[in-house]
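does this look right to u?? iron/sulfur cluster version
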Amino acid sequence: MRQENIKNLTLEELEGALRDMGEPKYRGRQIFKWIYEKGPEDFNSMTNLPKALADELSRRFTLNSFQGVEKHLSADGTIKLVFKLDDNKYVETVIISSGRRSTICISTQVGCRFGCVFCASGMDGFQRDLTTAEMLDQILYAKFCLNQNLTNYVFMGMGEPLDNYDNLIRAIKVMNHEDGLEIGARRITISTCGIIPAIKKLKTINTQINLSISLHAGTNKLRDKIMPINKTYSLNPLIDAVNDYAKASNRIITIEYILIKSLNDSIADANALTGISRKLRAKVNIIPYSPVPGVSLSPPLKKAVEKFVNRLTESGVNVTIRISKGKDINAACGQLAGKRDEI
Ligand code: SF4
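got this back:
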């Protein structure tokens, strides 16, 4: 029998599983709390449990999603973690620190089915969704094995988070829970290429999670060309869905825009982006493109970045230039590909 990772279970499910094992209800909460407060590596280290129960839990469940971890440190302090999963696939997690802020960029899938032309994660297509436990274990590894004091949690690593909606929401519930990781919704961000039905669904769960839209083009013509998802979910309905989410969540939307030389960096492109930013009352992050091996796109010229950003600023858009960190270890935006050699 293949053991299930206990972190795939919500508190209610864990209580149910313990009840089925003949244990009192409080046991579920006790175990849940211990897992997320102390990050145990095995059930026998849970000293608040009777030994017989710890042994039984070890027979039924596992506590670890990864076979191995490799750590890469960038000259700018960015950390990239490459995790080897149980089925020998790889995912990557990035931790970016700046001042008192420490942001973890969490992966949600191995590969990605959406094939944006500038992105390494989608180059080999979709392989599989990550489980809830595999998402949570990226955070737990950073917290307990690297002693990182994380302040922000962004689902912006490999894969499209809203394409793995159920596992994502389960992970967020555990992150949010007062007996789980106790992370406020406002410190969590989901980044999406624009899956409208999932954005509508997210609105119904009544949350204050931040939503970030990977836009990268301000017209359907260009977006169709560089982000194939746009052929299914085009700009106008996307803007409507995002606006509805912004109103329901009372959060400011972020637009991510990777600036690529001679592709989306003209003044006309800046004007199109301005129009959308205004409709969404969104803040805009401009991210100069970081080269991806095998992709024939180039970073924008410094002058083009300045002109582009000036045009947005003149139009009253709240814009920030985000210089991607971790380029020397292929950890920058769009560069996460998953490792292919053995750890
Ligand atoms: S940008 Fe996001 S949606 Fe597009 S291919 Fe990369 S991971 Fe997938």
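The chain has a mean pLDDT of 94. idk if thats expected tbh
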